[in-house]
Structure formats: C-alpha cells, structure tokens
Amino acid sequence: MTYSRNRRAKNISIRINRRGEVMVTVPRFVTRRQAEAFLAQKKGWVLGKLREIRARQEAERMPEAGQFLQVREKMIPIALKKGQDVEDAIWEILLKEAKACLPGRVMELAGRHGFRYREVKIRKMKSRWGSCSGKDNINLNSWLVMLPDHLCDYVILHELVHTRHRDHSERFWKALDQVTGGSSKALRKELRGQRIMYFGPDGSPGQ
Q1: Collapsing DSSP states into helix, strand and coil, what is residue 160?
Q2: Which residue ranges form the domains of the chain, and what is each CATH number?
Q3: Are the C-beta atoms of 113 and 179 separated by less than 8 Å?
Q4: pLDDT tens, residue by residue, 118-134
Q5: Which stretches of the chain score pLDDT less than 50?
Q6: Is residue 141 a contact partner of residue 196, using CB atoms and an 8 Å limit?
Q7: How far apart, in whole angstroms, are the C-alpha atoms of residue 81 and residue 84?
Q8: What is the 8-class DSSP label of residue 127?
Q9: What residues contact residue 143 under an 8 Å CB cut-off, 6+ apart?
Q10: Helix (H) or strand (E) holding 122
Q11: What is the SS3 assignment for 44?
Q12: To pair with 22 at 20 to 30 A between CA atoms, which of 69, 92, 172, 202?
C-alpha cells in the first residue's frame, strides 16, 4: 500500500497494478487521514479487485492439459475427459492419489499416538485442510498430497486430536503439541503459508 501526493490531482484515486500493489493518489489539499478514510470506504472494491488479480495469476500458473502434475514422487499426465477442464482433471488426480495413501497414514499416526476414529473420507475442499465430525469421522482435503509430508502429518494429527478435544481450547493445543514433538506452533505457521489449488511460476505447488 503506497500513498503518493499529486498537485495536479483533483480527486483521490486508487489504482491496483497487475502485481496486486495498491497505490493511492492524493491531491495536495487532502490530508493523509482523509485519504485513509476514503480507502476504508472502498475496502470492498479493493478486496474484490485483489481477488480477481489473484485468480488470474493462479489461472496463468496452472498446468495445462498434456503436461504432468507432480504428486509427491510421481509424475502424472493431465488428460482431460469430455467436458472436463484442467482444474477438474487435477482434482480427480489428487482424489485418486489421496485415497491411495492418506487413509493408511491416518491409521499409522492414530496407532502410534493411541487415537481412535471411525472412518476417513477424502474430499475436494477449497477452503480448509480437514475436519473431524462429532462421530469421529476424519475428513481430509485431497490437496494434502501436494503438501510436504510433515505438513500433511500435521493436518492429520490436528484432526485426530479433535477426536478427544472438539474445540480449539488450551487443552487441544497442548495435546497437539505433545504429538508433534513440541512444534505445533511452528507447523501451524508454516501451513498458513500454503494455499489450496495454487501453483508457483514453475507449475509446482507453492506458497
């Protein structure tokens, strides 16, 4: 966010470039406080434009049909079925790969730490990594197979701890810290830097 004063400007204006940088032009007779108040009024518009830019950037980075998607150690070709777009094809690949490995990993971690759960469901989720139902069913995002192993394990352990502590109370975080070797805070911070269905400039998943 940058503010620049322009003597020729007659009104406050907001410009957002292709990189998502917000620049506010301020006339000489307008105070900084007035400019900030104007920006606050336009917050909804600014956030909407930033979302559009982010979506466009991610679409530009997404692998194309015929290219390969790296899922852990595997290189899987992206082949489109009739009426299918690239994003749907990627989710289909991830669902298959996640179903092949995540339930076994949940079983392994649960056995190691003494957790009990009913079943594991793998789903396409665009806004969360996982969840635990009141009946101890573990739901996991198929995108987890695109994360580093230690972050994937963190998400699984997070949901397993919820079988004992339903909320995010102090007891929950203490229990999670115990099963992550005292690194739950650092892992949580690292996970926040990850984004679902995001590919870096080289086509690989990134932050």
Answers
A1: helix
A2: 2-61 (no CATH), 98-192 (3.30.2010.10)
A3: yes
A4: 999 999 998 899 999 99
A5: none
A6: yes
A7: 5
A8: S
A9: 94, 125, 129, 196, 197
A10: strand 120-123
A11: helix
A12: 202
